[in-house]
Amino acid sequence: MVPPAPLPQRHGVDPVRLRLPAEGGWATLRDHLVERLPVPSAVVDAMLAERAVFGADGPLEPDAPFTPGGYVWFHRELPDEVRVPFPLTVVHRDDRILVVDKPHFLAMTPRGRHVAETALARLRHELGLPQLSPAHRLDRLTAGLAMFVLRPELRGAYQSLFQERLVRKEYEALAPYRAGLVLPCTVRSRIVKERGELAAREVGGEPNSESRVELVERRGPVARYRLTPLTGRTHQLRLHMSSLGVPILADPLYPLVLPDPAPDDFSRPLQLLARRLDFTDPVTGVAQRFRSALDLSGWGLDGAGPG
């Protein structure tokens, strides 16, 4: 059984937990960490000298022996992150779940170069909710409704709603108007996304994704679409809209992968919004319906101008 972390969160971010190998020829913990961690040995020495590496019973000495199968914890150095200058707005909170409107550009959970500047870390830190966990995924570039679970023992119940497709999710998107496109329509395809590749792609074979696309309104060359995903593949809606010949405005991946903007460039938000979440609460049995208060801002986008 994994012991509880002996270190508190920092800025809403959990400490790193390492499981030590069951076998190995390292005499000391330091020897193992120097070999395992992708940092110079001087950094490991400094962490140990500062008593910043913890075992289950507290901080470890610089000459602590290697303990096969044990656990150690420490805080990673947080990357330099540009703050996403948009608020997280609480839509609903009770003793089980928290639903927020997530802005564009804010990642859901710590990963890669986005750690403290994520919805999960911000909410844990700002609301004093260290046990908060996400119930589902929402792309960093997509705005709108995101749901989190307050209590660890309820995490599985709410995550299962999304895994078992028991949540009706509805999105809005702004994209070019295409006169020859017959709508509403349902798009089915097989989507794959390889590790290390930014964009997903459609391939032949049995479909593993399904989206319903409806036209809501048109303003000149731009239209608003209602998108209902019936499955949950990575970038599914973005890829399906692109395959219909109406890629979502300001999409940096579909149909073409564009160079990354500067970290502080928030001028062209992807015109995709998670508008609605409807489900039956697995704990109370009550029907829950949430609607985002955000709006898309891209009626003036033409695919080339500023957002």
Automatic annotation (TrEMBL):
Q: Which reaction does it catalyse?
A: a uridine in RNA = a pseudouridine in RNA
Stored Pfam families: PseudoU_synth_2
Instruction: Please give the coiled-coil regions recorded for this protein.
Output: none
The UniProt record lists the Pseudouridine synthase RsuA/RluA-like domain at 97-243
Entry protein name: RNA pseudouridylate synthase
What species is given as this protein's source? Kitasatospora kazusensis
Q: What is the lineage of its organism?
A: Bacteria, Bacillati, Actinomycetota, Actinomycetes, Kitasatosporales
